[in-house]
Amino acid sequence: MSKFAVFGAIVALTAACSQENDMDDQTVAAPAETEAAPDSLIARAQTLNAPVAERRPVEIEQVGRTRVDNYGWLRDDNWQEVMRDPSVLRQDIRDHLEAENAYYEAVMEPTAALQERLYQEMRGRILEDDSTVPEADGPYAYYTRFREGGQYPIYARRQVNPETGEPEGDEEILLDGDAEAGDFEYLDFGNVDHSPDHRYLAFGVDTRGSEYYEVRIKDVASGAIIATLTDESTGNFAWSNDSQTLFWVWRDDNGRSKRVYRQSIDSAEADLIYDEADDGFFVNVGRSDGDSFIVISTSGHTTSELRLIDANNPTSDPVLVAERETDVEYDLIEAGDRLYFRTNADGAVDFKIVEAPMDAPGRENWVDVVPHRAGTLINTAIGFRDWMVRLERENALPRIVVRNLESGEEHDIAFDEEAYSLGIDGGYEFAVDRLRFSYESPSTPEETYDYDMATRERTLLKRQEIPSGHNVEDYVVRRIMAPSHDGEMIPVTLLYHRDTPVDGSAPLMLYGYGSYGITIPASFRVTPLSLVDRGMIYAIAHIRGSMARGYGWYLDGKLENKINTFRDFVSAGEALIDQGYTSRGNMVAYGGSAGGLLVGAAINMAPDLFAGAIGAVPFVDVINTMSDAELPLTPPEWPEWGNPLESATDYDTMMEYSPYDNVTAQDYPHVLATAGLTDPRVTYWEPAKWVAVLRHERTDDGLTLMRTNMGAGHGGASGRFDSLRETAQNWAFALMTVGLADAEVAALAAETSAEAEGGE
Hints:
- The chain is α+β, with helices and mostly antiparallel strands.
- Among the domains are: 132-373, 7 Propeller (Methylamine Dehydrogenase, Chain H), CATH 2.130.10.120; 471-583, 3-Layer(aba) Sandwich (Rossmann fold).
- 22% of the residues lie in helices and 32% in strands.
- The protein has 16 helices and 37 strands.
- It has an eight-stranded mixed beta sheet with strand order 30-31-33-32-34-35-36-37, with helices on both faces. A seven-stranded antiparallel beta sheet has the order 7-8-9-10-11-12-13, with no helix packed on it. A four-stranded antiparallel beta sheet has the order 3-4-5-6.
- Strand 8 (200-206) and strand 9 form a beta hairpin.
- Helix 1 (3-17) runs antiparallel to helix 4 and helix 9 (563-578) crosses helix 10 (594-605).
- The chain is globular, with a radius of gyration of 27 Å.
- Mean pLDDT is 92; it is low at 1-37.
- Pfam families: Peptidase_S9, Peptidase_S9_N.
- It comes from Hyphobacterium marinum.
- Keywords: Hydrolase, Protease, Serine protease.
- This is S9 family peptidase.
């Protein structure tokens, strides 16, 4: 889009929104061309005029408190319909979002060649025709793969040689993601799973990004879709053992998973078997490790409840395991001929494992098997006929523990790097001695192993291939401990090139999340390497609100303790300065969703730490969102954040850190916010409102940008390469804010000019 078209869009918006505008909110005309070109990308961008959102103040009274929301009009009252059909978005809101996109494009236009280079670098690290290691299930081995240039996965299988156990013969394609995508702008699959008799394939499809999925059944032999069960599913379902019955989860008009239905694949009618009455609980369905049970799980953030259905008798009634009890969680592991539960019952803060008979799983029959050990979090566990395997975390490092069910003997699988990530996979088959696990670190591409739990031998099956080349020795991985405001030590994982000076001169990207107990692993990612190879240090702060140092680490970063999350992040930045990794004002804060909340709170608290800040689909309008009970995640998330509709204490706690409500008249770093129009998790109006108030309040001439994907939801672009383009845009912004983009952009422009002259 030309600069004239950009400003045309902005002027059109201003005309549409000019009534009742404050005088200081008026958009001025585009500046005249300057005689001399600006000396940096930032300086050039500062000559462009941003769109200005109209301020329409609304006074809100709540729990004895009053606040004013100037930009609440950006929330379309018809948002539920917008999730299903984006074309119905109110016109004044659409005009504003499109003007923001036009301004973003105008600012970032000089970096187009840099974005393309970043995109090609990242794409060059992806094996385009990659595939997973086949996983045996009886007569077949199942896997996913990509074709050269393909955006979406292909689900396939081969027959297994019964003598060697290896897949052989012709490939049978079960589901072709690229073909399903067709002309759709967005595509996401929910569950994709074959029936136990291998005859059918069930899969969920979302083509809007709104997370409403159709559930389709495909006859594998003919390739025909024999049934579409629903278009109101979460995409979550489970087969019963008769291969004729599917259990699927329904999503209501507010986007909440509320019901479980049972449906024969040859019937148009579905039977309701579970209906969750509490809006604070979500519903899911799955199968136990040994396929003995269909498991209906209902859970809030810190409370869970399970019901079991005999998978061999799908019409039987669900059996409740243990009634929900506030702040008590439990989940099921089927191992051997017994049931096990990972639970925090009886004060087991970091969880323990208990066992119960298969026919009497109630809590009154639970017996401790793996006792609680404070500071050692039992993260997850899976079961086999003769083994149980758990993934633990202690002091932000994971380990795999294998338990022999007969003897009770346990052993660990050991690793050496300072920081790394592990994953375990139970596979399809139960009566085996083989565990499949993965290992990776920020510098080490993922390695997939088969591990013989009896002989303790590991076999490398696959090492992630980096087509453009990757030398592990070129990179340094470090784990430091950063003191926080109250003396707690925050683990921070660092990745940098061996040639990057550690003298305070290097720019740094500080990434964090810190909510819901989600722990960001020290894993290998191809995207940060494009920053690291340009001299940036990439750091992950394992702050409170995660479970990096156990469940208590999570509890110390939620509800009334939430402020610790943001202080930890700021403290991590300060420690990185103190230890000579970077300098003040030479960092970029980066986080998405609740991590965007982190970014927004951090730049309110310590704006001078950062040169730039990227909030990807940021949850920044905390008070208003947690007061809007219609939104999909609000009631379920009151245990995480508090309920400001009923508690003045919760209201005051949120008001202390809510990014949107704490923007003040001060200098801020350059800011980029992203949004997805059909995002049901963090609605588009949160970043839109945040950008509007930042632009109005900031006292400097820094950039405040917003980019909305008008055809996607929370995850942004859905194709594996399209998503890289969005990352390339973010990285170009980050490099621009720390001054690393100017020389490269100039060099790329010179190359283009030389090529053009050579062509003449």
